Amino acid sequence: MRGTMMDVPLTVPLLADRAARYFADVEVVSRQPDRTLHRTTWGSVIGRARALAGALLNAGMRKGDRVATLMWNHAPHLETYFGAPLAGGVVHTLNLRLSPDDLSYIATHAQDRFLVVDDVLLPLLDKFRARAPFEKIIVVRHTPREAPAGCIDYESFVSSAGGRFDQPELSEQDPCGLCYTSGTTGKPKGVVYTHRSTVLHTMFVPFTDGLALRNSDTLLPVVPMFHVNAWGLPYGCALTGAKLVFPGPHLDAQNLLDLLERERVTVAAGVPTIWMGILDALEKEPGRWKLQPGLRMIVGGSAAPEALIRGFDKHGLRLIHAWGMTEMSPLGSCSWLKAGMREMPYDEQVRVRAKQGLPAGLVQVRGVDESGREVPWDGQTQGELQVRGPWVASSYTDMEGSEDRWTNDGWFKTGDVVTIDPQGYLNLTDRTKDLIKSGGEWISSVAVENALMGHPAVKEAAVVAVSHPKWVERPLAVVVLRDGARASAEELRGFLAGRVHSYWVPDAFEFIDAIPRTSTGKFLKSALREKYRDYRLPGC
Ligand code: ADP
After folding, report:
1. Domain boundary among 431, 451, 471
2. Fewest CB atoms within 10 Å of the CB: 81, 82, 304, 468?
């Protein structure tokens, strides 16, 4: 039909061109392993990404070939995020916290031909290199050491094409990225992102009622680039021309706070455990760091407790709660207050901000109960969250054992349990695998954990199911107390009374030094379930 719109392919080169053309002078700062700061610009990053793309093509890269990365967050990783897709390849981020066995399984399954690796991670690579399919290993050197035998130096590789690169024609349905799920239940599964899904997802990042990233921002992604594309923030920064500050390998609270202060960061992003550490440090040494007023911290990956939101509010710093997953590129929802909600009492506002929020634009959601019926949006009834949208995966690279993750009518089953309130806000109450089923009722471990983390003596809390002769399962709370603080099981039980349903109050409390973490910094509840598998509840 005449008079319709142009069918412009949505591809990553559009993002690269924009960053280079309009934001060439904007800084990209990377903290090196030795803590020195390396400064470059978007103009240089994209120039070098194009040179890398040329070098990859010269080295025999074919369309769709995988270019793996094993790197911390820094400028060369950003160059590879663009370089591989510009050349028609697929950037496959390897999670450096996985075991060598998992890494060799994933690299082999993905058929990674090229690897770009940090020299400081070569000892890790050595543990699985013989079992991986890499044909060319390109080493980013942060230390004066030579690239080891059989490897290519990244700088020499980037300059090898002599700056020549002709952008090949790309279709928006071509693959450009690949991530594997963490495989906490079964083997890791590959999720392929297309140019189209990546560009559409990127459009949501600066959305005002989303992550609200803008050109005047300075963003520090604590969330690693080896995990779900650092939540799409690197591409979002290219679109907006925001300044990027990469933290490198030093992710403890003090090092992060030093960097937030020094680079005048206005937005940062990370999992709750990162922010818990930062809040702790701020409270121990109030006034030590001068942060940007109104600094926004995007938090996701697991639920942000209300206490964390309140804690940062007291310092004038704002937590923004988002939910997502590998299969969703990853952004699925974001919690912000609808018009009129700012007039609500503060406590109610915090309750809304602690929810996972409203679905991202173009993402549809529904909750479905065990009998396959859609649950009402009453904020009470729990159901499994199912999603549909242009940046939601339609399959894994290998479907064995996962056929049931998609419904017959084309929705993805997230494995998360939610309530949806009449306003449309999602509230994640659990993951299906963490659910505690007591006498036929679902107990929300997340709600109990968050309530417990509101107690001033509690630093961290995880609640897991243990078996019970009458109720089948009952909750056990595993608690880490703040340094020097005390609280008995009795006191915590009393604190929970009135804050959660009475039958949700855990039957027992165990006090430990630290809750085990997953490779991406979330509480590793499966390890706790294993540890307390034969736990005898009082009176049983
Ligand atoms: P994994 O956690 O298995 O490594 P992902 O990184 O893809 O895999 O994480 C996706 C899962 O993380 C979601 O399905 C959900 O259970 C959890 N999650 C992510 N964000 C939030 C959030 N804001 N609140 C609660 N859970 C979250």
Report:
1. 431
2. 468
Tell me how many domains the chain contains.
3
The letter for the amino acid at 268 is A
The pLDDT of residue 184 is 61
Check 41, 181, 266, 419 and give the catalytic one. Answer: 181
Q: Which residues are registered as beta bridge partners of 385?
A: 367
Determine the angle formed by the axes of helices 42-58 and 12-22, rounding to 10 degrees: 140
Instruction: Please give the residue range of the domain that contains residue 454.
Output: 436-531
- Hey, which of 323, 391, 392, 433 would you mutate to test ligand 1's pocket, going by the most ligand atoms within 8 Å of its Cβ? 323
| Residue 328 CA, closest ligand 1 atom number | 7
3-state secondary structure of 430: strand
Q: Going from the first residue of the chain to its last (540 residues), give the mean pLDDT of each consecutive group of 10, the final group possibly shorter.
A: 94 98 98 95 98 97 98 97 98 95 96 97 97 97 87 96 92 98 79 98 93 96 95 98 96 97 98 94 94 95 94 95 97 96 97 97 96 96 97 95 93 96 96 88 91 94 93 95 94 94 94 91 89 89
In a domain, 455, yes or no: yes
* Per-residue confidence (pLDDT) for residue 1, from 0 to 100: 83
pTM above 0.70, yes or no: yes
Contacts of 31 by beta carbon, 8 Å cutoff, 6+ apart: 37, 38, 74, 245, 246, 247, 248, 250, 259
Q: What whole-number distance in Å separates Cα of residue 349 and Cα of residue 352?
A: 5
Structure tokens at 447: 């709600």
Ligand 1 pocket check for 429: Cβ under 6 Å: no
Q: Which of 155, 184, 442, 473 is catalytic?
A: 442
H or E element that contains 462: strand 458-468
Considering the domain boundaries, does residue 47 fall inside one?
yes
Q: Is 300 close to ligand 1, i.e. is its CB under 6 Å away? A: yes
pLDDT at 163: 79
Say yes or no: 365 and 506 in one domain: no
Q: How far, in Å, is the centroid of ligand 1 from the Cα of 8?
A: 33
- Using the atom order of ligand 1, give the atom closest to the CA of residue 446: 25
For the CA of 326, the nearest atom of ligand 1: 7
d(CA 71, CA 249): 9
Of 146, 174, 200, the one marking the end of a domain is 200
User: Which domain CATH number covers 402?
Assistant: 2.30.38.10
Could you tell me if 119 and 169 lie in one domain? Answer: yes
CB 219 within 8 A of CB 213: yes
State whether the beta carbon of 445 lies less than 6 angstroms from ligand 1.
no
Q: Hey, whose CA ends up nearest to atom 4 of ligand 1?
A: 182
Q: Are residues 82 and 159 in the same domain?
A: yes
Per-residue tokens: 523 = 């509480």
Structure tokens at 519: 């490779």
